[in-house]
Design brief:
heterodimer; A: 324 residues; Rossmann fold; 7-stranded mixed sheet; 18% strand; B: alpha/beta; two-stranded antiparallel sheet; 7 strands
């Protein structure tokens, strides 16, 4: 085990995979100087400017060129800077990357990793703060990864780079400095395998990305009140580990889904519906979802905070499900 | 149109152009058969014929190697055949049958044959430009000497990928030739009515991509110009070719094109690229009977493809779930 931050873990994954496979390359704005958050810092020195490639501010072409380069035998890592900016390249991702393999009857594959940092940090307002993971979970052909820890960021990013299908890889900007233990060796993650962050018999909280930490904070507080919460970190939304969720809710009889994204039509709705379809008779309380209200994200901290799902809100919802 | 067909004279590479003439006839007959199939409800979705534009496809692709790459548009039958695809597998794809290039999952607008370097038609106007730039980028990264040709229409120059993709090719000095087939129409609107400025070539030049213009109904002129431009592009000097032509059919086979006069279309038929080529070959001494026989052979070939495709089974239902992705069970149903 080695201690490192979420951002260092991702950088390590990229470096390891680029050493392993000369066909892997990264392309995006400002990569030569390390990327907007420093995710690629120093990599150009080892791999050169052709493989850590700068790009014009042309999101559509960054994504589209990656699709063409992937169909022509390379494995591009696409850097979109912010998931908000990736919206300039939705045609290339949704109409092209996600569908090429199917639409051409299996004649080709599109092995690209699309890094789209998501989430709120402080005062970045409506176009630099969104969590749009549910959009991509809706699209056949895409894998959607939403890691919450340094270890998962490394392992899942390595898996994404090795995946022969397009992967939307959504790192949370507020987690960049988060420290954690990362296993030694070639630790490659598995898509569709949730992690249990905490076991408990009273209530299941399902979450992903930064919201996992909020859920854990709430779970710790709830434990002191005698409420034992199981916290599941989905890690990927497509595929998502429905077996783990169903097994846990079958044990606890209560489900609370917690995510940072807008609650309406968020991925929590999919989880809630699935659990309702399968475990109706086993539920001891109605399913609850916590997400952001359906308003754009503000700049002023006091307004921005209206969108945040806090540990306090999670704990309050949990108490409600317990009838307290 | 070449005003004086005999001007090519005895310098004409007779074998080459006889073959090109035959290829244009094949494309023409393929599309005529496909239009009939659409009328007979054998082709179920929309098809976009390239009748009148065959010389561009044949003249350009005739200068490519099998391992070179092309990307095409919704109007892509001609490019696909010119790159070497099999008309029966194409016809099966248009009919949505087993054994089609994409197993009946793509149809006309997503026709592709990766074996011959045809990386796909595209249902989104202009979307192929960025993808083509990326294919050329991969060729450069891998140190290969292949080249990419990206075909698109004059309507595509008003989409963002035109700017982004051409700039990209220029910045990274990619082995790519952009071919703008200017047929005068963006779907069912005259392109010039919706286009500001100096047009495709001026825009390409503005992004540092040298542009040449050619008569898109003169196969010999296209062939000669494409040869030089592809040589240049292969060296990592991206080039742009504007081929001025005319779409003799409507936007789709179902479009009767009421937005233009019959007189206009009749006049344009006088400049049919296949007739033009025939005149040149005859003037150079090729017997007309031989050329007629080639056209007839193309017609029977496509008739056979039509009949064979119509007699082919539908794809197996299981294929609806195949090739989505490796991860996640696509058989999971939401109903």
């Amino acid at each position: 085990m080695a201690k490192m931050t979420y951002i260092e873990a991702a950088r390590l994954a990229v470096a390891e995979e680029m050493r392993r496979d000369p066909l892997v390359w990264a392309v995006g704005e400002d990569l030569g100087r390390g990327g907007v958050f420093g995710q690629y810092k120093g990599l150009v020195d080892e791999f050169g400017p052709e493989r850590i490639s700068d790009a014009p501010i042309s999101e559509s072409c960054i994504m589209g060129a990656a699709v063409g380069a992937a169909m022509t035998g390379t494995r591009p890592i696409v850097e979109m800077r912010f998931s908000d900016f990736a919206l300039c390249a939705v045609d290339e991702l949704v109409n092209q990357a996600a569908k090429a393999r199917f639409m051409f009857g299996g004649q080709t594959r599109v092995p690209i990793v699309v890094r789209e940092p998501i989430g709120m940090w402080r005062s970045s307002a409506a176009q630099h703060s969104q969590s749009l993971e549910a959009w991509y979970a809706h699209i056949p052909g895409l894998v959607v990864a939403v890691p919450s820890t340094p270890a998962d960021n490394r392992a899942l990013l390595k898996a994404a780079i090795r995946c022969d299908d397009p992967v939307v890889f959504m790192e949370h900007k507020n987690l960049w400095p988060l420290e954690g233990e990362v296993p030694e060796g070639d630790d490659v993650g598995r898509f569709g395998k949730a992690g249990s962050c905490r076991e408990g018999c009273d209530l299941t909280i399902v979450s992903w990305s930064a919201a996992v930490h909020t859920a854990m904070e709430a779970a710790t507080a709830l434990a002191s009140e005698g409420i034992e919460v199981e916290v599941l970190d989905l890690k990927t939304l497509w595929p998502w580990d429905r077996d783990a969720v169903l097994a846990s809710v079958e044990r606890t009889g209560r489900l609370l889904v917690v995510h940072e994204a807008v609650a309406v039509a968020g991925f929590g709705a999919e989880i809630a519906a699935t659990v309702a379809e399968h475990l109706h008779g086993a539920l001891k309380a109605p399913i609850r979802r916590l997400g952001a209200p359906r308003i754009p994200i503000s700049y002023a901290p006091v307004l921005e905070d209206e969108v945040r799902v806090t540990a306090g809100a999670v704990a309050a919802a949990a108490r409600g499900l317990m009838g307290r | 149109m070449t005003d004086d067909p005999s001007s090519y004279g005895s310098n004409l590479n007779m074998e080459r152009y006889r073959a090109h003439y035959g290829q244009m006839c094949r494309i023409r007959e393929f599309e005529k058969a496909a239009i009939t199939a659409a009328q007979n409800k054998l082709v179920l979705g929309a098809i976009h014929p390239s009748i009148g534009q065959e010389a561009v496809a044949v003249g350009v692709c005739g200068n490519l190697r099998r391992d070179d790459i092309i990307l095409s548009t919704h109007r892509g039958h001609g490019h696909t055949m010119a790159k070497g695809a099999d008309p029966l597998a194409m016809m099966r794809e248009l009919f949505g049958r087993a054994g089609g290039y994409s197993q009946g999952k793509g149809g006309s607008m997503h026709i592709a044959d990766f074996e011959v370097g045809m990386l796909g038609a595209n249902g989104v106007v202009g979307a192929n430009i960025n993808i083509a730039a990326g294919a050329a980028h991969a060729i450069k990264l891998r140190g290969e000497d292949r080249v990419v040709v990206c075909f698109f229409g004059d309507g595509a120059i008003n989409r963002g990928p035109f700017l982004e993709g051409l700039n990209w090719a220029g910045v990274f000095r990619l082995p790519i030739l952009f071919v703008c087939e200017d047929n005068g129409f963006a779907a069912t609107t005259r392109t010039h009515a919706m286009t500001s400025g100096g047009g495709p070539a001026a825009r390409a030049e503005a992004m540092g991509i040298a542009a040449d213009t050619v008569d898109g109904n003169d196969l010999v002129a296209i062939d000669e110009m494409a040869r030089d431009l592809i040589d240049e592009a292969r060296q990592g000097r991206p080039r742009f070719l504007l081929a001025r032509t005319y779409r003799l059919t409507g936007h789709t086979s179902a479009d009767t094109a009421p937005y233009r006069s019959e007189e206009e279309v009749e006049l344009r038929w006088l400049n049919d690229p296949i007739t033009n080529m025939r005149r040149i070959l005859e003037a150079a001494g090729v017997p007309g009977t031989q050329l007629t026989a080639m056209a007839e052979a193309a017609k029977s070939e496509m008739k056979r493809a039509y009949e064979a495709a119509a007699a082919t089974d539908w794809p197996s239902r299981e294929l609806a779930y195949a090739d989505v992705q490796d991860i996640g069970d696509p058989r999971e149903r939401a109903f």
